[in-house]
Amino acid sequence: MTIVASRGAVSHARRLAKGTAIPPFIVGVTLFAIGTDLPEIANSIVASVSGHGDLNIGDSVGSATTQVTLVLGLLPLFVGAFVIGRQRIARTGLATVTALLIGALLFTDGHISRLDATVLIIMWLIGTLFIWRGLPPASEPVLRIQPRRSAHHAALALVMLIGVTLGASVVVWGLIGITNAFDIPEYTIAFVVAAIGTSLPEFAVSLTALRAGTRDLAIGDVMGSSFADATLSIGVGPFIAPALVTASLAVRGSLIAAAIVLAVVVLLAWRTRHTRVTGIICVGLWFVAYALLTG
Fold this sequence. Notes:
By secondary structure, the chain is mainly alpha-helical. It has one domain: NCX, central ion-binding region (A middle domain of Talin 1), CATH 1.20.1420.30. Helices cover about 80% and strands about 5% of the residues. It contains 12 helices and 6 strands. The strands form 3 sheets. The protein has a two-stranded antiparallel ribbon with strand order 1-4. A two-stranded antiparallel ribbon has the order 2-6. Helix 1 packs antiparallel against helix 7. The model has no long low-confidence stretch (mean pLDDT about 80).
């Protein structure tokens, strides 16, 4: 439900744009990244309001890791090798690593306050501007988005967003039930299991974009979603309802995520071409992250 609703929200939100020419990478790193990140954002709100801060941090940080390892790694296995813009992935990756490290610092006191949340949300805004301003010229034709029945698409987007929230509520309470039944830390189950589920929209959208020949859109969505997870997704929930977290797990998970994201960015910026070999390495790094978190 959450995945279907998030994809529908993205589709209708895109049609709301007024007919300007927008480079595909910008659409991916902002509009599509936020749209496909709606499950994590909804989870953040529901988990924080219900007093389960570890589910928010675990899902968001786990998703930031999952998207640049499993999601990005699986793409060339499905569609074959493709070129990755060095500057695009380097700037977005650097912003994500910086956000994860600052997040680790904020989590040390075991409490995500409204001030902490504000810092993370502002980081998303500043980081997005940093990514935009340093982009090279578009490597693909711009997407010309024509206005069409704006009120209709706005209403449908709102309905889809409600669906995302309802789906996220089911996920959160399901995870709470699992952790209670098996005595598994909420943070761990969210980092490993929930993150895979809430990252499926990124995989679906990016795979579709690659098959349609819009590489920049696909990369922008994956990398932009990872950055949004490390900032906006974590911050939205505690901004509404500050929450307690398990400091040791939250800090450890963020540092692991930062190291893994940095490793992927260095690998792909060095190679510039994402092949099945680099894809397998990225998938392997997800297992490394899992081993480090649970070991």
